[in-house]
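Entry, Tuesday afternoon. Goal for today is a structural model of the target with zinc ion bound, before we commit to ordering more compound. Inputs were pasted exactly as handed over by J.K., no edits. I checked the ligand SMILES twice against the vendor sheet because last time a stereocentre got dropped in transcription.
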Amino acid sequence: MTTEQGAQGPHQVLYRKWRPQTLEQVVGQEHITQTLLNALERDRVGHAYLFTGPRGTGKTSTARILAKAINCEPTGGRGEPCNDCEPCQQITDASFLDLVEIDGASNRGIDEIRDLREKVRFMPARGRKKVYIIDEVHMLTAAAFNALLKTLEEPPDHVVFLLATTEPHAVPLTIASRCQRFDFQRIPEERAASLLGEIAHAEGLSMEPEALNTVVKASGGSLRDAENLLEQLALTAGADATANDARRLFGIAGSGRARELIASLLGEKDLAAALRGLSSLHAAGVDMRQIHRELVNELRALMLVRAGAADVLDVSDDEKGSARELAEKIELPVIRHALGQIAALSVPSGSPPLPLEMAFAGISLSGESVERGAEQGARATQEERHVSETRAAETPPARQLRQQQSEQQQRPPQQRQEPARPSQPRTESEYPRTGSRPSPMVAQRQGGAEPFELPPGELTVETLRNHWRQLVDGLRGVGSGGNLDAWLRSGSQPLAIENDDTIVIGFAHNLHRDKIADPKYRHLVERRFAQLLGKHYTIRCEKVGQEDRGGHLVRAAQQMGGQVVSGRDQSETETE
Ligand SMILES: [Zn+2]
């Protein structure tokens, strides 16, 4: 069994039954099968082929048919296999001794390659030629590639190598250059739909064409997936499944439901809605592996569109237009970040939604800092330079103080003592940006079941900023009007944490500041934050004007004895 098959799950009855048995039956790859047929007829089959292309497009099937054709007895290896002689039948049953299938992704595969050089010298046991099919060849280790290369450099006459990969760029050039390369194409939708129609008819399924089209769209150009999805549809909704059944099971279009999830998560920044969407897809029996693939494709599409490379996309103009609509609402670094997080996941068939849920939450939590990073990349370096300049000018007592404090941070929280502190405010500049910190702190909402995790160690203003949106969301429903969060939602920003017990919040508008500074509301905010952060902090509200936004940092450094040594004015050192 190859990895591609292994990941498909237990059914696959249709896929196995309808697997092509001759080159002519391979759908949508005529440019390849015709060339191979010509080579067979002229007895010009090469010693090494590299089949590349998306999954489910017929690479492994074609390799097996070619192995058959080479070893077929009645034809003498000069055409399509007869599928009737002993070598042909044994290859169909996977019992032919001279066909070795190696899975490049498995450890066993690597071992098999290692002693390949030994075994390859032996003549075929029964067939005309020994055929090695190496699937997912890009997964081989460097050592295995090396062993393979040695063999490819001086290939014995009686051996044919058929290498298959979904990622040709990951195959070393030294290997690829010694193979004849064939690029398998995604199956065009009309071809896949008409083939599914034939299969459905032959299997006694009376599904309407629109249902089959929906299956094809959901399969993303993989014929194997299309056949498996057709089977799933027949098993779930019966032999006369309608287009509506198919839509319910697979979504309206392949990218439709993935786009909806991404619109919630990144467009509306509504994590709860995205999680609900995921959950209802799972409840409807949609395979999370399929959703995972759609999410990756959709994020890639958005990234390409956002980067101005929509022409690279292999979709209709309508599709591009609707992708553009969403892409314009999201910053490129945010799309890039989300794509990185989702693509790195492993979501096997039949997986629970958990891996995707965790990725969604992670993307949502880090979304704001990615966005801010994009806006302020240039300014951040300026700020850092300035901070290091002010630090250099610190008086010795101030430096001592910082050392003391960072020693305290090394201790586990429960052992931390609270010495009489000097009254200087503590700002972000005092906290180490990296380094080991004590045990993780997990904040749990008391009322609801939505915990969120804070980085380990003492709360820093950076952490606070990264989680600010979640904290503000946590205020929803608090206060007599239930809208306390609204006063903090726009134009508020944590400025500093002072003495490890006071959070300083900066407001762009006096009205908002006065509201939250009002003790009766301030206490509500403090109480809610204590639940969310796992520790009580006093809230202090400040109005920040354009002229001194971020000047806070410099002001704090000055209070600690620092001097502004550069000639720049404060507006260049804004942190926000
Ligand atoms: Zn035969």
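The two ends are 56 Å apart (CA to CA).
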